[in-house]
Amino acid sequence: MSGSHPVEDPGTTSRANGGERSIGEIVGSITTEFSTLVSKEVQLAKTELREDAKKAGKGAGMFAGAAVAGLLFLMCLSALLVLVLGDLIGYGWATLIVTLIWGIVAAVLAMRGKKEFQKIPPPLEKTTITLKEDVQWAKHPTS
């Protein structure tokens, strides 16, 4: 047996000689590789979303802190304005004027905010329309 070749499985002979694989093997390989790719992409997306959520949480906390600091600033500024005006026209009138100013600011902001909310379309409006179109197409695919 010194000059003989080792016995090979008939299915591997063609692969070793010509590198050919059956269509079933190719499809199986593609399916496995595609499944692995999709799995890794989903895993990557989850990781990125987790990281983005952490950053968004930190940012939201900073904005909340800024809002509290801004509110305290406006309260102190209002008190200062009342004290300055109070010396000139009396503290009762000064308090009334500052309160009316803040009431006007609040009303203007509320009206503008309402207009902005009215610009928002109903939830999933475009998706609902396209789903209805898909259903109609599915019922009558030739029309």
Explained architecture:
The structure is a single chain. The chain is an all-alpha fold. The chain has one domain (21-139). Helix content is 83%, strand content 0%. The chain contains four helices and no strands. Helix 2 runs antiparallel to helix 3 (91-118). The longest helix has 67 residues, at 23-89. It is elongated. The N and C termini lie far apart (74 Å). The chain crosses the membrane at residues 60-85, 91-111. Residues 1-20 are annotated as: Disordered. It holds the Pfam family Phage_holin_3_6. This is Putative superfamily III holin-X. It comes from Kineococcus xinjiangensis.
- Helical content (DSSP H or I, runs of 4+): over 70%
Note the total helix count: 4
The general outline is elongated
Largest sheet: none
Protein name: Putative superfamily III holin-X
Pfam families: Phage_holin_3_6
Region (Disordered): 1-20
Transmembrane segments: 60-85, 91-111
